[in-house]
Amino acid sequence: MAPEKKRIARVVILLIVIAAASTAGYRYWKNSNTATDTLTLYGNVDMREVQLAFMVQDRIAELDVNEGEHVSQGQQLGRLETTRFESVVQELEARLEQARQQLEELETGSRPQEIRKARADVAAAKASLLDTEQRYRRTKELVRKKVSPQQSLDDARSQLDVAKAKLKAAEEALSLVLEGPRKETIAAARANVAQIEALLKRARKDLDDTKLFAPANGVVRSRILEPGDIATPSRPVFTLAKLEPVWIRTYVPETHLGNVVPGMQAKISTDSTPGSSYKGWVGYISPSAEFTPKNVETPALRTRLVYQVWIYACNPDNKLRLGMPATVELDTRSTQADPDASACSGAQ
User: Which positions fall inside the CusB-like beta-barrel domain (predicted)?
Assistant: First the structure.
């Protein structure tokens, strides 16, 4: 029985060795396939920055936020002194009211009192002319009879000419009053109103620009100026890091570029949040190659040509900070299109 037991023991040992070898081979095959389906990259968190400056020049009255504070879109960040801008607005408002009154007067035309006066002036001129004509005829008759000198006739004729001229002037004045202002005068008054309205609109815009607002949700990276400084459009007051979009700036070796396509899903992890990850996707692939940057932490040779790739990340808790080192794992089997905003809600 001893030889039989030995054979059975050998068979059992052989089966155990075969099973162990099969298990090891399967694990190696699985790990090999998994490794080829995942591309690991290293990079840093990046986001857009905005240099915020006032649109007009004056002294800063107050600033409402400091470095590191989160701000919302439309939130007021600071304001300038407004005395100079308010006085300009008030002056233009007064000028505009005056110009509008003048335009209204021209468009309304002559008042009834002015028309009645002009007609009365015409009637008076006619009466004066009639009286002058009668005196002229009497003087002419006296000169013919040689009762009056020739000079008196000459004087009477001159007075008659003056009376006729006054009547003509009165009639022209009545015509102007009845016709009203010239169209060109009204058009010039309207243009003057439009010009002052444009100046007032600009002055009010300058007054509004004495306040500085956040253009988007973000974090204040730096506060460059302080209250009392003179702000100009060319001098930034704050540097704002926008919270969206957030991406990982990484580099793909040329040998792996064929495995990376836009929309490919990615898994992002950082040392600051061990055990958790963020969803992401390939959003940009550079069309030109460059040498590996010094700050890229990768086991590949640094002299190898690489292509810059942006991995857009879902950042629901705002824990991804500018410049933070990050590890990206790309699933090379996935070629899905860019996820919409709802896909970011599932980020861990």
Answer: 245-332
